[in-house]
Specification:
The complex is a heterodimer. Chain A contains eight helices and 16 strands. By secondary structure, chain A is an alpha/beta fold. In chain A, the strands form three sheets. A seven-stranded parallel β-sheet of chain A has the order 5-9-4-1-2-3-10, sandwiched between helices. The chains are: A alpha/beta, B alpha/beta. The complex binds flavin-adenine dinucleotide and adenosine monophosphate. Chain A: InterPro entries: DHS-like_NAD/FAD-binding_dom (IPR029035), ETF_a/b_N (IPR014730), ETF_a/FixB (IPR001308), ETF_asu_C (IPR014731), Rossmann-like_a/b/a_fold (IPR014729).
Amino acid sequence: MTAVLIFLDHAGASLAKSERELLSLAGSLGDVSVALAGDAEQTYLDGIGSYGVQECYRPEGDVTQVLVAGKAAFVTDAVRAAGADVVLLGNSYEAKEIAARAAIRLEAGVITDVVSLDDELTATKADFAGSYTVTCRVTTDVAVLTVKPNSFEAVEAGAPVSPREVRIPVDAEPAAAHITGRVDKPVSGRPELSEARVVVAGGRGVEGNFGPLEELADALGGAVGASRAATDAGWIEHSAQVGQTGKTVSPQLYVSVGISGAVQQRAGMQTSKVIVAINKDADSPIFEIADFGIVGDLFAVLPQATDEIRKRGL
Amino acid sequence: MDEATAGGLRIAVLVKHVPDAQFDREIAGENLTTVRAESILSELDEYALEAALQLVEAHGGAAAGHRITAITMGPPAAVAAVKKSLQIGADDGAHLSDEALSGSDASATSRALAALLEHLGPFDLVLTGMASTDGETSLVPAQLAERLSLPQVTFAAALEATTESGEWTLTARRDNDTFAETVQAPLPALVSVTDQINDPRYPNFKGIMAAKKKQIQTLSLADIGVGADEVGLAGSWTRVEAAAPRPPRSQGVVITDEGDAGIRLVDFLAGQKLL
Ligand SMILES: Cc1cc2nc3c(=O)[nH]c(=O)nc-3n(C[C@H](O)[C@H](O)[C@H](O)COP(=O)(O)OP(=O)(O)OC[C@H]3O[C@@H](n4cnc5c(N)ncnc54)[C@H](O)[C@@H]3O)c2cc1C
Ligand SMILES: Nc1ncnc2c1ncn2[C@@H]1O[C@H](COP(=O)(O)O)[C@@H](O)[C@H]1O
């Protein structure tokens, strides 16, 4: 039987959607254990247990004070302790880096951005900013995979149970960068950008006023994203940036507002299921990839759409 | 202590020659490798080179003995990435070129680059881009830090170096989804930078002329003591089985707002069952 180890790094009060997707995927592959780098609340641990996870590996001591190296060493040791054949991680930059380093220690291949996986562990991913579909395999005994959110179904969990906790000693990393400060960013209460089913994204055309986009996003239960022009202008957090150097999103619906559609922006959104574009310039390249385009002023179109959704009681 | 007497820094900047994203990019051939025509210096690596130049300028410039080496691994044409780096301001360059490297995945690339850096070094600082614009995996910098046992300072959105008694300390800011963190490391270290860190300069006429006199060393795998079976397809831990271009997105309906576009948008969404 395949042994799967999942590395989870979020540890709030409850499981995030992407974490439930990972647990569901792992359960379909084999026996599942979890490696948790930091502290976790009891409700979170019970949540993991409700997916049939028997073992939860935790580090002895703190691996979170150095950048990546500590967590990578911990994951490596957890993989060995669990005898895992498959290691699953999320798809954040940090998760990919942890995967990268642990893979060197384990002499294992890594595939990032996995969107589907067959019985033989052949993975599918998008390449060249979504313009290619590539299938690839890990050829080593252990496979390390980072999985894109929204790619696998999250199945219903069973009754909450606490997994057995296994502490593993991790040697301190002599050569490591130390985390000396941390500033939390304000939380919006909206869904996480890379997990959201709907994304409403604004660009330079928004002229600093994201209000109408936030209202539409809330009416649709979506997240708010942005082009680099908007994040560079300081109108919205950098973490909202979609594109080559921001997030790659594949929601059911992407509403592009006041964004011209440069290649670097497309790189982050062109695998969305349905694309709607609102731009006052009819020649804007974004219309080339839009399923529904509106040539118009965003400040007229958005409020009208939001009102209409509310009016219909949707 | 004065920086000059502390000795200059040796900085390696890793620059990759990648297919230009402005054109259609292709994966082809028996081994399903990237087609490298129409290639350029990866624009994300320009930020790493700029970070190196700014660091040197902030600490006494070339007169203080600092030296920036632009390094690439790739087919013969990849030397263009090094040449451009020399025009922008790197002091010298190195190009690892060997047929056996073709088809290397991240693990094989990081193995070859680690050996190359050890052969050319020791370096006080290794700078890279946040991702290559073709592979886009962001795996190589972390794997290099692991292989070279260097402190890893990756995705730096701001970077500063200070020196005291000949010991250098880097301080960087790293942005995560829900928080930003400050990270510190002594040199030697490996740093990858994001496109938030600076505005890369362009080569000017003086730089282009000066680059003609700068040295580029070309090396093969044998020169750096790496076996052909340790890299390329043979040395990779992953294998591409198939690659197909996605059908391009076709243009849908485009309407012009005549005062009711918001309502028509809601009709469209309702029709797509997206409400
Ligand atoms: C290395 C590198 C990495 C990059 N990474 C990214 C990335 O990750 N993500 C990203 O987005 N970009 C990225 N970029 C930048 C990218 O090249 C573009 O510059 C950027 O996407 C442009 O943003 P924009 O479309 O918002 O602005 P613009 O191109 O200025 O477009 C603004 C649009 O708004 C429209 N508009 C104006 N007013 C209105 C109105 N009232 N109603 C309707 N429409 C209106 C205009 O017609 C125009 O089309 C990167 C660039 C580089 C060099
Ligand atoms: N073949 C290469 N030659 C030089 N640098 C490279 C090469 N491959 C990767 N790098 C460096 O590693 C960074 C991240 O690449 P990647 O992990 O492929 O996304 C790039 O921005 C480069 O600085």
